[in-house]
Amino acid sequence: MTRLISPAVAVAALLMAVSPATAQDTPPAPQQAMPETTLSDVVVEGMLVERTRRFVDEISRAPGRRPLARWNGPLCVGVANMRADAAQVLIDRVAVVGNVLGVRSGEPGCRPNVMVVAAHTADADALVLDATRNINAFRPSTGGTDLGGAALQRFRDSDAPVRWWHVALPVVNETGEVAIALWPDGAPQVNISRSSRIGSSIRHDLARVVIVIDVDKAGAASFGALTDYVALLALAQIDPTAEVSEADTIMNLFSTSSTAPDRLTEWDANFLVSLYASRPDVANGWHQETELARRMARSLRSGG
């Protein structure tokens, strides 16, 4: 995958790339000047790293202590039960955010690996229940491709305006070969080189994302904000149970706060850019979390 040279450029591009549905003519009100505070650079850096680490730990979740997965192949978004023009806006928004991160878009007619389905409340549960009967699609392995059976039941039972499910695969970093037994194929034969304490010959790739929008419950949000919400879910393993009410993130879109963001925030953009700029073969989730927190803190402190 092609990576952007400058994370600051990527963050700026994400924050400037307003979808057609969110563009506004009214300029933002100027912010009140904050009083100057003198703190050592070391103290400020340490405090910010701690904040970014809490943010990464809370907003994201991979199975076990595995690293967060990301797309390393073409991204193909499919949308069902949505008006064609609205579906195209959503598809384009996810593609724009993905392209900024270096994720290629699939060719026209590609087989969707991100499926977004809109449904009314009366139909959403039945739709999810029917879809999840194909257990091989939602849990292709017991080896950590997903959050597990209890989480899948929560996905079925959820009454949230938007619910989602991620499937990721461990693959050999050099070849892309699947490095786990999948139903019903059994264990693959792969050659895995020796790993170190901080590096591994295995990376984790996103393979499938299912996002279900309850249009009755999500109706209060602007469609532009909803496209950014979906874009974040499509590109990273976001925790459905995350408590982020105190964080500046689009994941608070459906909160009762009058200040809930209506698009990707600076923290969201830095999280995505840091994730896709980090090393793909990190040994475990703890090391990756540390790297993401430090990358985010550097970028936020420099204003980009």
Poorly predicted sequence stretches spanning 5 or more consecutive residues: 1-5, 23-40
How many structural domains can be distinguished in the coordinates? 1
Question: What string, H for helix and E for strand, traces the elements in order?
Answer: HHEHEHHHEEHHH
Binned strand content: 5-15%
Query: Which range best describes the helical content: under 10%, 10-25%, 25-40%, 40-55%, 55-70% or over 70%?
Result: 25-40%
**Gyration radius over CA:** 19 Å
Which structural class do you get from the secondary structure elements?
A: alpha/beta
Number of strands: 4
Q: Order of strands across the widest beta sheet? A: 1-2-4-3
First CA to last CA: what distance? 23 Å
